[in-house]
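Below is a filled-in request sheet from our internal design queue. Each sheet records the structural input a requester submitted and the sequence that came back. We keep these sheets so that new team members can see what a complete request looks like end to end.

REQUESTER: design group, bay 2
PRIORITY: normal
MODE: inverse folding
CHAIN LENGTH: 669
BACKBONE (tokenized):
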């Protein structure tokens, strides 16, 4: 064996070593790929479950909005009385402003349609199961029905309903319903599906029905008893992920989650991911690994041909090149002789490197003297503030005596420290950026940041500087601007407070009359191209009697509580609540039509009544408000202006007060 090894050359020995080293590496690569496949599958299940959970929460917004809408609508007098044509007109107006709904209706306890957004009344409500669930529910429970094709609209839908409160009126004890526009829901599903790059499907397991989905594989409400996902969902397995065939028969990893607030309809969201997408990264990694392994083997084999060069010819070439550069005056050169080279080559390399280092130190000493003279001249020219010289490593090499007054440090204490060290943590990126600017040859002037003095106090300073050499050194001038900075900040805050006080009513914290007038004209002009613009005027009922009985301080507190209630009903940034005068408040509603404005006013009236502020001189013993509503769409062309809409809102307010107060009235212009 020894004789055989003795006859094997260096090149052959290297080939054997490379082959031996590659075997465990190949085994490690194969093991890693197997683990990667398994990890990718687990990660895919986890990700698709999270996506389904988040998607179900997004889909729940459709039902949350419908519940909030029905909860408000079920308390409106027009709905409870179910008088015609008022009720049909109101429902038609609300439906016209909500594309997500196909129809809205009020059903009597005998299942007769009393009101409908399409004017259809007198017939029996078509969804008997939904009617029975809702009529037998307690309180304000929100019920989601099954998929059906509406006999009125002729379109696929899912109806939602709530029971009406037991109050006097034709609709007492009945239900109010709305049918959802599945096309609008599918559009939302399409956007979310395309954004995620996965299939999204809303299903109803108890009926083995596919409500809708994207990509659009089947029609709305298709019954698919062979869909393998339904048994898994009904089994209630934990993890809420599975790998089954899709509706198109393709293997798919599904994550599924019940849609919150739609449990009565048994609606689930299923998110599907094809396995090809899951394992694409691992497969690409496999291909690249094979390419890389082949390349590594080729490089390893080719490298054996270079061994002789690296072992003999290269050390000689390094020594020769270093000697030539030293002779040309380049003393920064190093041979770069590797520690693995022969001892003779290493000793020669060390001798050459030491000679170059000695010559470089002598040259650096000469340059340091010249640089010191330049720094001295710069310091002499900048003695008003604290002057520092900073080297390329960011450390101070010279500090003037002004450091005692500005920072509380002796110059010697700052030597060797970086300007970054004294800056507060939040401002250190500013100082680092300045030093980088100086190192690249740039200059800076008047840059402010905060530093911490020796006694622990924090002050504002202003820094200016410029480079002083070609290796990254710089000279900087520091000035104490703490008092000026604080004065400027105080002035800015004072101006902001003055502007806020000038625009706000002190008692109600709403916009004052002047701000109301200005914002009304601005909002009216901004919405000139749209008929949607409304104004609410609110008056506290019997407020003078309240002040006379309880005193003006109590009246102020009462008005502040009503104002807070009005402010809480502001939903958009461009809606403005204001104190119009005395106990009158106003709410500007850009982009809101008559029906929505009436609904908003009714919400405010109910919210004030819910405060239950005692008022012995008022009907019912609690404080109430009257609200007048006016909309741009009700103004004639010759009267379309802010003054006219205020006048019409005021007329509507007086109509509400004349009708007995604690009411909402809209008066056509």
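RETURNED SEQUENCE:
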């Amino acid at each position: 064996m020894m004789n055989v090894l003795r006859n094997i050359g260096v090149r052959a020995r290297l080939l054997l070593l490379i082959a031996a080293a590659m075997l465990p590496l190949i085994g490690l690569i194969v093991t890693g790929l197997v683990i990667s496949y398994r990890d990718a599958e687990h990660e895919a299940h986890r990700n698709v479950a999270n996506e389904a959970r988040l998607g179900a929460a997004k889909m729940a917004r459709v039902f949350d909005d419908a519940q909030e809408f029905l909860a408000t609508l079920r308390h409106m007098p027009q709905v409870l009385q179910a008088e015609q044509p008022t009720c049909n007109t109101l429902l038609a107006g609300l439906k016209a402003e909500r594309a997500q709904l196909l129809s809205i209706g009020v059903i009597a306890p005998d299942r007769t349609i009393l009101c409908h957004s399409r004017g259809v009344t007198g017939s029996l409500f078509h969804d008997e199961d939904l009617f029975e669930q809702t009529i037998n529910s307690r309180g304000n429970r929100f019920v989601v029905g099954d998929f059906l094709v509406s006999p009125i609209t002729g379109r696929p839908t899912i109806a939602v309903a709530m029971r009406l409160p037991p109050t006097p009126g034709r609709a007492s004890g009945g239900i109010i319903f709305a049918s959802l526009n599945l096309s609008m829901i599918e559009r939302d599903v399409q956007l979310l599906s395309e954004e995620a790059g996965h299939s999204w499907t809303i299903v109803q397991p108890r009926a083995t029905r596919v409500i809708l989905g994207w990509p659009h594989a089947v029609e709305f409400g298709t019954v698919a008893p062979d869909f393998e996902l339904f048994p898994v969902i009904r089994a209630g397995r934990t993890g809420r992920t599975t790998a089954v065939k899709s509706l198109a028969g393709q293997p798919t990893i599904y994550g599924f989650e019940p849609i919150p607030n739609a449990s009565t309809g048994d609606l689930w969201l299923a998110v599907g991911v094809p396995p090809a997408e899951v394992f694409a990264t691992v497969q690409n990694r496999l291909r690249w690994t094979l390419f890389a392994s082949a390349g590594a083997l080729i490089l390893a084999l080719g490298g054996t041909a270079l061994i002789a060069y690296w072992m003999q010819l290269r050390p000689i070439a390094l020594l020769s090149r270093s000697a030539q550069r030293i002779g040309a005056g380049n003393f920064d050169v190093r041979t770069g002789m590797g520690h693995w080279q022969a001892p003779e080559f290493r000793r020669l390399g060390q001798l050459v490197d030491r000679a170059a280092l000695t010559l470089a130190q002598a040259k650096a000493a000469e340059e340091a003297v010249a640089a010191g003279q330049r720094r001295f001249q710069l310091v002499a020219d900048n003695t008003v503030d604290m002057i520092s010289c900073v080297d390329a490593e960011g450390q101070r090499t010279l500090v003037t005596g002004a450091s005692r007054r500005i920072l509380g440090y002796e110059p010697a204490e700052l030597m060797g420290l970086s300007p970054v060290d004294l800056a507060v943590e939040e401002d250190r990126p500013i100082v680092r950026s300045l030093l980088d600017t100086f190192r690249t040859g740039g200059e800076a002037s008047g840059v402010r940041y905060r530093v911490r003095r020796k006694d622990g106090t924090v002050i504002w300073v202003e820094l200016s500087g410029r480079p002083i050499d070609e290796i990254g050194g710089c000279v900087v001038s520091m000035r104490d601007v703490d008092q000026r900075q604080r004065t400027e900040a105080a002035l800015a805050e004072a101006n902001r407070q003055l502007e806020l006080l000038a625009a706000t009513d002190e008692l109600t914290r709403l916009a004052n009359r002047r701000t109301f007038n200005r914002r009304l004209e601005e909002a009216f002009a901004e919405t000139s191209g749209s008929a949607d613009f409304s104004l609410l005027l609110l008056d506290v009922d019997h407020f003078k009697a309240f002040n006379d009985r309880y005193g003006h301080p109590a009246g102020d507190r009462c008005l502040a509580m009503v104002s807070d209630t009005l402010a809480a009903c502001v939903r958009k940034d461009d809606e403005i609540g204001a104190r119009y005068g005395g106990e009158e408040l106003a709410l500007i509603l850009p982009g809101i039509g008559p029906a929505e404005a009436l609904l908003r006013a009714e919400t405010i009236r109910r919210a004030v009544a819910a405060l239950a502020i005692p008022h012995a001189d008022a009907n019912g013993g609690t404080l109430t408000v009257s609200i007048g509503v006016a909309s741009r769409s009700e103004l004639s062309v010759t009267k379309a202006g802010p003054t006219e809409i205020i006048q019409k809102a005021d007329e509507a307010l007086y109509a509400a007060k004349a009708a007995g107060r604690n009411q909402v009235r809209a008066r056509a212009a």
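SHEET NOTES:
- The chain has 21 helices and 21 strands.
- The mean pLDDT is 84.
FILED BY: M.R.
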